[in-house]
Amino acid sequence: MTQVFNQNGEAVPVTVIEAGPCYVTQVKTVERDGYNAIQVGFEEQKKPQRMSKGEKGHLSQIGVPMLQHLREFRLREEEEIELGERILVDVFEVGERVDVVGTSKGRGFAGGVKRYGFRGGPKTHGQSDRWRAPGSIGGGTGQGRVWKGQRMPGRMGGVRVTAQNVRVEVVDPERNLLAVRGSVPGAKGGLLVIERARKSKELTKRRGEQGC
């Protein structure tokens, strides 16, 4: 993370992301596959010998480098993308809203206070060791059991997290860098998926005008 200054001279916290180059490694259509989508590859494999023969054959037929990460994205009917096309960071614009998907940092085993923000017990009235305890987890009468999904201590982090409606602040086509406002899920060097924001006000307004 770092910061940039906007036109008003305000410091804006941003996260710098290496967003490309990516390659279109497969195009799926309604006629052949039942839906419209593309498969996108990112980051050239440093040790191609570790890839399977199927992966090597799939990429060599297209004429793209041996890529390490492959992900699929749905397409709208009006969008047309060719196989083997190179996608750069210039597909984004400053001010655009995106969703950033990543894997959060693993925190290991954590208690209820850290994992869910529980308040804990009081320090007074003889509570010598209940300060960070979760308290009661179920009734002794009535249902007489612990409800499924009860928030309790356990493994924290290491899950898929989406930062929604994040604003794009900087687009650097020369270095394939993208800066988005605020933080994004995961540790440094982690893999991120950047998609069109699903809950942006502009997109919602456009859908309302089209009657969707």
Question: How would you summarize what this structure contains?
Answer:
14% of the residues lie in helices and 34% in strands.
Outline the structure in words.
By secondary structure, the chain is of the alpha+beta class. 14% of the residues lie in helices and 34% in strands. The protein has four helices and twelve strands; from the N terminus they run βββαβαββββαββββα. The protein has helices spanning 30-33, 53-62, 112-116, 201-210; strands spanning 2-5, 11-18, 22-28, 37-44, 67-74, 86-87, 97-103, 108-110, 154-156, 160-172, 177-181, 193-196. The strands form three sheets. It has a six-stranded antiparallel sheet with strand order 1-2-11-10-7-12, with no helix packed on it. Strands 5-4-3-6 form a four-stranded antiparallel sheet. A hairpin with a 5-residue loop joins strand 1 and strand 2 (11-18). The chain starts with a strand and ends with a helix.
